[in-house]
Amino acid sequence: MFGTTFYHGTTKKLIIAFGSVFNNIHVQRTEKDGTLIKDIKVPLAYESRKKYLARLIQDQTKNRAVPRMGFIMTGLEQDLSRAANQMNEFRFNHPDNDKAFVMYNPIPYNFSFSLDIYTDYMDDSLQIVEQILPYFAPDFNVVIEEIPELDMRRDIPIELTGIEMVDEFEGDFADQRIVNWTLNFMIRGWIYPPIRDQELIKTVSTNYIIDTGASGPFHPDEQINLEVDPFAYGAEDNWTIKVTGGHPDNPDDPYDVDTMEELNWPITRDT
């Protein structure tokens, strides 16, 4: 089982896709009459809540970077409710027409993420939250190219699973205020097994033997061959099946078949 090195980067692609959903959120500061004072694009980073709050405690200047968002993957768990037969194989186009890419069923996993929102003002945090929540009812789909060499794209649902809000002061009473929202999400994704090359079967020969009740060795009374036509075509080309049949000239030689005649397909009683 082990010993074959492979890496599809699926988890990394899920992390990037999750972050891309929230990378264009803005906060606007306005006068009481609605006049726009400032438009702020909210920075987004891959970092934990604990790490960012620790940095905020150290930096109590008015120039600290808020509003701000941070996200992190918090775990993953196999989802048996979406599991399929792991022995099922799927075949995909190969650059070599005589081969196919083959892969077993992927394993379903649920990936947990948290998104933290940090602001100085409650109104800033509400602007951010209200730009996010309408798109999750309860999930939002993103398209991920999971395995480019197989041209495999999949709609991946991101589900909002929980919301928490904390309005607190970090450090001493004199320190600045931090409004922190934590939004929890679950991505129903997949982990893929290795890909292998497999030769395509383009010819099938079937020998028919009349059972006379005698003991062997047995020799074919008729042979039917099925072959891809044109033979050089690949799995996704517009090929057909050429069927030929014939009778052996020498019953003692199973490979001695007379001139093969092309037959109609499907084969009927009158063929």
CATH homologous superfamily (4th level) name of the largest domain? Myoviridae tail sheath stabiliser
- Name the beta content range: 35-45%
CATH topology of the largest domain: STM4215-like
CATH architecture of the largest domain: 2-Layer Sandwich
Q: Would you count the extended β strands for me? A: 15
Widest β-sheet, arrangement of strands: 3-4-7-10-9-8
Mean pLDDT: 82
Summarize the structure.
The chain is mainly beta. The protein has 3 helices and 15 strands.
Which keywords apply here?
single chain, 271 residues, mainly beta, STM4215-like, 2 domains, six-stranded mixed β-sheet, four-stranded antiparallel β-sheet, 3 helices, 44% strand, elongated
Describe this structure in words.
With 271 residues, the chain is mainly beta. It folds into two domains: 10-196, STM4215-like (2-Layer Sandwich); 201-263, no CATH class. Helix content is 12%, strand content 44%. It contains three helices and 15 strands. The chain has helices at residues 10-21, 49-58, 122-132, and strands at 26-30, 36-41, 44-46, 68-78, 89-92, 99-104, 107-119, 139-147, 152-169, 177-191, 196-199, 203-208, 222-229, 240-246, 261-263. Strands 3-4-7-10-9-8 form a six-stranded mixed β-sheet. Strands 12-13-14-15 form a four-stranded antiparallel β-sheet, with no helix packed on it. The radius of gyration is 32 Å and the shape is elongated.
Helix and strand arrangement:
Blueprint: H1 10-21, E1 26-30, E2 36-41, E3 44-46, H2 49-58, E4 68-78, E5 89-92, E6 99-104, E7 107-119, H3 122-132, E8 139-147, E9 152-169, E10 177-191, E11 196-199, E12 203-208, E13 222-229, E14 240-246, E15 261-263
Parallel strand pairs: 3-4
Antiparallel strand pairs: 1-2, 4-7, 5-6, 6-11, 7-10, 8-9, 9-10, 12-13, 13-14, 14-15
